[in-house]
Amino acid sequence: MAAVVFDLDGTLVDSLADIAASTNVCLAAAGLPTHTQNAVRGFVGHGIGVLVERALGAHATAARVASLLAAIRTHYQQHSTDRTRPFTGIAELLQTLARRRVPLGVVSNKPHEMTTHIVRELFPEVPFGFVAGESRDIPRKPDPTGILTACATLGVSPSAAVYVGDTSVDMQAARAAGVRSVAVTWGFRDRAALEPSRPDHWATSPEDILAVL
Fold first, then answer.
1. Strand 3-6 to strand 161-165: parallel, antiparallel, or no bridges (unpaired)?
2. Which of 38, 155, 166, 172 is surrounded by the most beta carbons within 10 Å?
3. Which residue from 42, 17, 49, 55 is spatially nearest to 135, judged by alpha carbons?
4. 55 with 27: CB under 8 angstroms?
5. How far apart are CA 185 and CA 12, in angstroms?
């Protein structure tokens, strides 16, 4: 395989504590019910807009969604790396891939400015050739635009790339883009939740990704 493109949250980094904290701080400030960290785990994966709608639940109105979305964006931008860290073995995996001169990319459903900030903060020495989150030009996965743009920017065809992620949305996006998919089992979804999406490969540790390559 000539290139590896990664999802961010639940794949490269364990960001659940910071996502849950920002969500709950903003809900509490609005006088609304908060959620356990495990509940927030089920809200993530489809972008910040869906997270807000799920967090509000029966309290959702157009005005509340807009207000909470703005509040979480502001708070999370300032606190997105308070407790977020790479998963065990990820730094070593990325170092190995970089030494082998494997083109590397990141495509996330997190807003673009948050995605690039976290990658800069936590992986300053990794030579990612493409990093993108949701933006006007890159729709949320499972739309394949982000992965296809990553392949084009990295100079490889989709058939010469793999996409590594932790949710069924990631597997759907990989299939739509025509790249091989690798489902990791250390992220926000367990294997049972991922099996219906029929990934091409499984990774129970970062080292397994080297075996796929």
1. parallel
2. 166
3. 49
4. yes
5. 12
pLDDT of 45-82, one tens digit each?
888 889 999 999 999 999 999 999 999 999 999 999 99
137 given a catalytic annotation: no
Cite the DSSP H helix spans in the chain.
16-29, 37-41, 48-56, 62-79, 90-99, 112-122, 145-154, 168-177, 191-194, 206-212
pTM passes above 0.85: yes
Tokens of 127: 């030579």
Asked if residues 11 and 163 have their Cβ atoms less than 8 Å apart, the reply is no
Evaluated on CA atoms 153, 156, 158, 164, the torsion sign reads negative
> pLDDT tens digits, residue range 138-179?
999 999 999 999 999 999 999 999 999 999 999 999 999 999
Domains of the chain and CATH, by start: 3-14+85-212 (3.40.50.1000), 16-79 (1.10.150)
Q: How confident is the model at residue 1 (pLDDT cuts 50, 70, 90)?
A: low
Rounded to whole angstroms, the Cα distance separating 43 from 188 reads 10
